[in-house]
Amino acid sequence: MAVGETRFPEMPVIEGLRLGTAMAGIKKPDRRDLVVIEIPEGARVSGAFTRNAFCAAPVTVAREHLAACSAHGEGARYLVINTGNANAGTGETGLEDARATCAELARLAGVDERSVLPFSTGVIGEPLPMERLLAGLPTALQGLDDGATAWREAGEGILTTDTRAKGASVTLALGNQTVTINGIAKGSGMIRPDMATMLAFVATDAALEPVLLDQLLREAVERSFNCITVDSDTSTNDACMLISTGRGAVVEDEADLAIFRNGLQRVMTELAQAVIRDGEGATKFVTLQVDEARSRREALDVAFTVAHSPLVKTALYASDANWGRILAAVGRAPVEAFDVERVTIDLGEVRLVERGGRAPGYTEEAGSAVMAREEIVIRIALGRGEQSATVWTSDLSHDYVTINADYRS
Amino acid sequence: MAVGETRFPEMPVIEGLRLGTAMAGIKKPDRRDLVVIEIPEGARVSGAFTRNAFCAAPVTVAREHLAACSAHGEGARYLVINTGNANAGTGETGLEDARATCAELARLAGVDERSVLPFSTGVIGEPLPMERLLAGLPTALQGLDDGATAWREAGEGILTTDTRAKGASVTLALGNQTVTINGIAKGSGMIRPDMATMLAFVATDAALEPVLLDQLLREAVERSFNCITVDSDTSTNDACMLISTGRGAVVEDEADLAIFRNGLQRVMTELAQAVIRDGEGATKFVTLQVDEARSRREALDVAFTVAHSPLVKTALYASDANWGRILAAVGRAPVEAFDVERVTIDLGEVRLVERGGRAPGYTEEAGSAVMAREEIVIRIALGRGEQSATVWTSDLSHDYVTINADYRS
Questions:
Q1: CATH fold of A18-277, please?
Q2: What are the residue positions of the site described as Involved in the stabilization of negative charge on the oxyanion by the formation of the oxyanion hole (chains A, B) (predicted)?
Q3: Distance CA A119, CA A105 (A)
Q4: Lowest pLDDT segment from B121-125, B140-144, B191-195
Q5: Which segments of chain B belong to CATH 3.60.70.12?
Q6: Could you confirm whether A90 is annotated as catalytic?
Q7: Is B354 annotated as a binding residue?
Q8: DSSP labels for A78-130?
Q9: Any idea which fold B285-406 has?
Q10: Where in chain B is the domain with CATH 3.10.20.340?
Q11: Is the interface score ipTM higher than 0.90?
Q12: Closest Cα of chain B to A144: distance in Å?
């Protein structure tokens, strides 16, 4: 199941950046499960990774190699991504396997192995099937291409329990030049990213200084992937990479930077929302907007407390305007000296709660009409400050239980 | 559904303490939904209440009345409890209704209204049906009795989505005297108590100083009701009351106190575990034991992070030894400078994880054999300190979704 439309866009070419996929049979036969992204020389690469303490072997190696590239003033040259196996909880063997994957791709492509970054997603705790994975690399390399089909196939080649590929693209005018930002992402369950989502790869031809690239990635992640949750579980393999080939317009002055920052945020937010629309078992796409908080942290705490409440999530699934559950979740959020008399809660255009109780004009019919929709906005105003946060989430359905109880994922 | 046996014990008499129930038709006809507990003069009453900021009207009034009693050096004389309606999120009207309930019972019983404490549980946000509730009070008063049947009927009269009544009792020898501790509790969903569980009433004939009574209640709650979670949702109506009639043995010296403290902990823990065994949709009873933490707070944080993980809970439901999900949940717990190389995870008697990955001797067969059980112990040793915590939880089943999506609770 999935909510609403998510069309994979016709991605424009980003000159010098090519993608290749293979069917390596890592977990299942006859599906794209191995992706190689080739990055031109002189590009800059920035990454945000999971903060899960049990981070996966490829996350450790990708961080190491990225640091080595930075130390030499170079960008990475290849990303290699497999689905079907997360190479997480695999100890020393997992690290060796991730390094061996980089080494083999480096040998085939004639580059230094530290310029190859590995990424894995899939089941935790099983060894990577190295023979099949390595055997797939030549096919992926031979298929390298910069066209829209290559982007779409790469989008498909990183999926796990996702029901559809997720891509987003914008082309921005900077003065008399244009720059493009393309991104692909995967993710459906174990989604409560902390620094980045499961896997997202965003590339642009814009030229950006490394420090600025890092800063732009962190800002955009903070208001996109770090604002979504399916099930509160932060993955061991989260990674979000931003690649700047530098072959397009140079982003220098404040006006250009504002346009670029805005475009990047759009691409990242669209990808993050696509993950939620395709959340495991999702039948609703829910926007939680918290306003009038003392700090953004406080607004996020309230939003995530509501977004993680199983009782709110099952009420959303049932299209039941059970506003008491929303109120109870808001009330248990970690807010100091919380005066609930000042709180208002709106469901779409309907006022649910004010002055600590049900709003006077509220009717069950009005609430139920909003809850029946596939896309629902819940707005919570705390009445104690000026700060806001928006979080996107899905509901908790029978399909969520079925997907996670019936299959080893 | 419910896990294991929970026999409602044959409660001994606690002299002077009587219980009466009525069928007031608050939400549904023909079920016990109104309970009155009469407390003898001279008794002491201590309470622990929810920390949900949207606390229910009866919680506010019970706190006020309890404070008024303390100020006069007296204990409360009556507790009045209704199920079927939580009187929460009901604003000013809710407070008036809770006060009117106390006033009417006080009038009928000939006591001061501030010596009556109100408690409610059930649906949030609907006004109390005051006419039916008040009409039920005389029946409950007429039925006041101190026998085992009265205790059992009171246990039944406070239930909501619970499938069975929950009671626990111990009789302790203090020197050549005995004291008794009886307790009843309710709770099945919206269970992640913070200070106390949904509703629990514990009474003893032991004589205890008020300050000591408060302290004993807080200690026992901290390691019983505050260590359970069904769905991470803290209720608006949580309350746990401890009544000491003072007609039995006086608890004075250290040896007696140790015996009493231990007995109270047993009763409270048994009640708390009974709530989990009867958790909404529960098919498993899971003990999460975290050892070798730097602080008890840290141990609790790890235990609750695992206990709240929907992916761990669905794996438990599926009897799937998906240890990667446990590892991922441990890894996202808020532990500073967390070295996962030192962590070990055991499932029952089977070592799952050590040195950051799957334990060498682990086999899927051994893990599956433990997961197939109804009662499962997961032990997580952090390898960084001396502190421990134990948390009890249930699994996430289709029935949980059905119960919360199909009915307005």
A1: L-amino peptidase D-ALA esterase/amidase (3.60.70)
A2: 121-122
A3: 13
A4: B191-195
A5: 18-277
A6: no
A7: no
A8: EEEEEESB---SBHHHHHHHHHHHHHHHHHHHTS-GGGEEEEEES-SSS---H
A9: Ubiquitin-like (UB roll) (3.10.20)
A10: 285-406
A11: no
A12: 34
